Amino acid sequence: MTTGMRRGLTSYGDAEFSLFLRKAFVKAMGYSDDALERPIVGITNTYSEFNPCHATVPQLIAATKRGVMLAGGLPMEFPTISLHESFAYPTSMYLRNLMALDTEEMIRAQPVDAVVLVGGCDKTLPAQLMAVASVNVPAIVIPTGPMLTRTHQGERLGACTDCRRYWARFRAGEIDQHAIDQVNARLAPTAGTCMVMGTASTIACITEAMGMSLPGAATIPAVHAERLRLAEASGARAVTLIRSGPRSEDILSAKAFTNALTVLHAIGGSTNALIHLTAIAARRGVRIDLDGFDALGRKVPVLVDLKPSGQHYMEHLHEAGGLNAVLRELRPLLHLDVPTVSGETLGEVIAASEIVPAQQVIRAVDDPIYPCGAIAVLRGNLAPAGAVIKHASATPRLLDHTGRAVVFDSLDDLALRIDAPELDVAPDDVLVLRNAGPRGAPGMPEAGYIPIPKKLARQGVNDMVRISDARMSGTAFGTIVLHITPEAAVGGPLALVQTGDRIRLDVNNRLLELCVAVDDLEERRARLTLPRPDTHVSGYRRLYVQHVLQADAGCDFDFMVPDTLPETAPVVVGSTADRSARRAADACGDG
Ligand code: FES
Fold it and tell me: Where are the alpha helices (DSSP H) in 468-572?
């Protein structure tokens, strides 16, 4: 097999000439023949001044390069797209697939024997994992790591759970402009990713759980020296991966995805992670079965006490032993024989985990934060292909609720009317947002956290049942049903809802129902006019709207995944007879 500079030669019809030319040009950067004979480790550079979550990427790359060279390899960094949540119009989700394509093709185009992926903000690690799932090179992931916290009036702040909470208080008139400005200056006090269990933290945790990064990678704070040492070790490890594996195809197995889904429940992770995992798994020929994921959630309790479901932050999870300590608690429910980039099996990695006495952040399976997994999958005539709710961070009394629908037809309609004094809305109503799915918006924005109408917020209402075909930030909370599939813009039943209809949410029975007679629904469907596909768009937008898949298929492009997926995850494994796991299952009403 060709390696190093001989790999993937540019096509001139003369391989020796291609190598001659390649070396002539690369020597312009000062490389010696000795350096150019070494195994090459590519390092993705996702630094951007538009991406504060990646502010430490240059230092991480410097440390990674040191590790590669100490192990006898040649590090070569190369740029890829960088995505930050607040600097991605229309949404970062719209651009995730573009970043995945970019990363995949640049890994393929350049002579890299292994790749180190440095990423962190919500969509970056998913895009990078989608890329390596397709390319199948030896790969190792270095998350940029979570921010540290700061306080306001003695209360600890977390981006972005408290961004939303304080904004809601400001909207309700509870705090003034001066206070909200102070909070604004303190929510993101250091470089790094959001420090609650939002999407970035969730993806970093499941990446480590799948074995694609070294132990500690998910939780070491972005600005700790420990993270630079992790980067150095990852660089050195990448050189070993070239020689002896495992490759990403060995690591990204159905068993590894099952482990990831188990961890997603146990950490109280983000609903977005389900979409990303579905997309990554599909590229490896593995299908994530939504009902299987839901069944898994009846056996796996939430163990990690982090916002938005709990009270602590990522720095505290790290001090409590990091993800490895969570995995130790989950051992009976995990596949322990899967390989990891460390060269050890997951079971061996867990065996070396640190035990921190009297820590308050990670609970035992028989003393959980929440008795079942964080996320439930709903079905019903409103969501024939599924919807999700993060019930671990919802209001318990609203989990069994029937209310009158108040419908918003689009994001523009929502912005126009949600705070209108004349809006006919009551606290028991169900707020409905549609045409905010993968195609409808397009890009499936994180608009599912529909704001409480100002006039209700000012009366002290802080949660309502809200349903949509949109997503929600992993840092958000509330009784919010998301990812309704099929979305309204492709004719899903959500398109048929009218203001005044009754909607039933019954999370215990996993039900989302529109209480309207079948004949009436058929009549409405006969009259339904779907938004016309915009035939005038060109470029990436055209590619996106024509090829993006629905949420239950991971919102990847249809041409990136096989028509049929031979393997299915999750397969619930381990000792389900384990007493602790059984107690948790009993508490969730499922033996
Ligand atoms: Fe980047 Fe939250 S905005 S992780």
Answer: 518-527, 539-547
